[in-house]
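Project standup — Tuesday

K.O.: blocked on the structure for the chain from last sprint. Re-posting the sequence here as requested.
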Amino acid sequence: MNSKFALWALGLMMSLHAQPAGKKAYDFRGKVVEVNTGTKRITVANEPIEGWMGSMTMGYAVDKEEVLSRVKAGDQIAAKVYDGDFTLYDVRVLPQAAAAVTPAAGSWLRLEDLEQMAVASNPTLAQAQANQRAAAGLARQAGSHRGLLRG
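H.V.: unblocked you, prediction finished:
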């Protein structure tokens, strides 16, 4: 039992060490466009990162090389990024939204299930949410630049 705890503690320390200390963390979401095992980078079309950057498609390093064999083009991912660091940490492949609410064989769909499926797969709602996050980020960015112009 002690050896399992020691391995867990070592893994925790290594993951904490790999993440930049003292930098602000942001939640990252996007769609994998390409996986390049030669350069050990993945190209992702990311959603806007509120308070840091708008949506764009660019290459990112990953904190763990095994991510390169786990993700593929077309996967929706979530990760952590840190201010000024273009490495993705703790990359997770997200399940397909429609599959998450699909009922088991032989069961009935409820109105709530149908509503969830419609909202999850509606591209207009997703775009509106992305536009709102982008506008909020731009407003925050404009406010921070405003102080620089006065000073």
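K.O.: great, moving the ticket to review. The radius of gyration is 19 Å. The first strand starts at residue 25 and ends at 36.
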